[in-house]
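It is worth pausing here to work through a concrete case rather than discussing structure prediction in the abstract. The textbook approach is simple: state the sequence, then state the predicted structure, then interpret. We follow exactly that order.
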Amino acid sequence: MSNKKLTADSKICSLKDVLDVIGGKWAMPIIYNLSKGTLRFKEIERTIEGINTRMLVKELKNLEANGIITRTVFATVPPTVEYALTLKGEKLLPSIRSLHQWGQEYAVELHKDEKK
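Step two, the predicted structure:
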């Protein structure tokens, strides 16, 4: 076995960059919920169990800043805000669905290990 340190190359950096965008606890559930269509803030908040308003705002800003979602504000009283996936966000869906499927297949094993 080698004790060499890994050097940062473009492949490692690109994976780190991806995890910076979607690696947050709430990013993937938000993206997954938006895959069903455009949602308002409260609709997103209701569909994700355990998220608080502060964290949802933070994750939505991060996803918008990275071009994963769009935020559209309508001039109503009170203002209506809708969120939708961009093309860039939609291209994440196959990967997220694969991770979801993997989790369903192995969730029993993961929870079994926690009980030991």
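Step three, interpretation. The CA atoms of residues 29 and 48 lie 7 Å apart. Residues 93-115 form the longest helix (23 residues).
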